[in-house]
Amino acid sequence: MSKEEQHDGQPSSDEWMADLARLVNAPGYKRWQSMVAATGGCGHPVHLAGQSMIVDAGTGEILHAYTTDAEPSGHLLVACGNRRASVCPACSQTYQADTFHLIRAGLSSGKGVPETVSAHPRTFVTLTAPSFGPVHAHRDCRACRPRKRDRLCEHGRLVGCHLRHAPQDELLGQPICPDCYDYTGAVLWQAHAGGLWHRFTLALRQELAGQAGMTRRAFAQHAKVSFAKVAEYQRRGLIHFHAIIRLDGPNGPTEPPPDWAGHHLLTQAIPPAVHQAAVTTPPSSLGRWTLTWGDQLDIRPILLDPSADGLSERAVASYIAKYATKGAEASGTIDHRLSCRALPDADG
Fold first, then answer.
1. Nearest CA-CA partner of 118 in 242, 253, 222, 226
2. d(Cα 333, Cα 326) in Å, to the nearest integer?
3. What is the pLDDT of residues 255-264, one digit of tens each?
4. Which domain of life does this protein belong to (predicted)?
5. 121 vs 183: CA distance, rounded Å
6. Residue 224 region by backbone torsions, left for phi larger than 0, else alpha for psi between -120 and 50, else beta
7. Distance between CA 73 and CA 89 in Å, rounded?
8. Cα→Cα distances 93→42, 53, 104, 261, 317, Å
9. pTM value?
């Protein structure tokens, strides 16, 4: 069989070229091309069908009418708008660029935010999940989890791992001992992570007010706390929250906070707020669980000078934009919908 013929049910190169020639020479090709270009190269455009009209409410006159019947394929192509790079690279790039500019504007200026916002206290904070048991990890030039080679857990498995895992090793993120790992706690924590973040924001406002020697209501008359966050999946399937926290005046970014509400107050208030935040699950057959943040907490100032001991505005905006387009594929999961279908009867 030559390469010009069909192979494994796929059209041959001659058939591809013939189809392409028919498409290019079709009467509606230029319109189809313009619709494809308008999607920005979307890999999974939405095909819309129907009609719309703009009618003068006073006279009932039809000012404009549109129907997809006139389109070459009978459909209007619209970009899917999916932000996940693993689903649609083109749309995720658009989303990433939009996110970058929005975050950058909130840190420096633009989109209605004045340049003076750069002088406001700002930090980049990473909040983590607690440990639910040791998992396999990639460590540069080091063993995964070195322990005494004869030390066993209560289930008879080694408590350590002396392998040097490659970055794409399928074992990464998997428990050292599946029976020791607290899967129930991990699932519950993930399910309530959003609520735990909310509790943290409340605790931070309370802590800021307390350290300033006033009530929350009184503090709100002097300063306002603004947040922007993104979740990053770890290989173990749990998320980190990366957040920008900024102190503004009582009316937002258009006015500065008072002098006493500076970087020191903000960075000193975050750790106790993290430790105070907790969510208690509703009663169930699993009991009631109190869920908190993990021990790892990273607080870094966002500075105008990138050479100083902190993060630049551009670096932070790029970081947030990057993780805004990542899905759960980094943890080894799939990024499409699962469906259950009955298999045909083998005897049928």
1. 253
2. 12
3. 999 999 999 9
4. Bacteria
5. 39
6. beta
7. 24
8. 10, 33, 16, 37, 14
9. 0.80
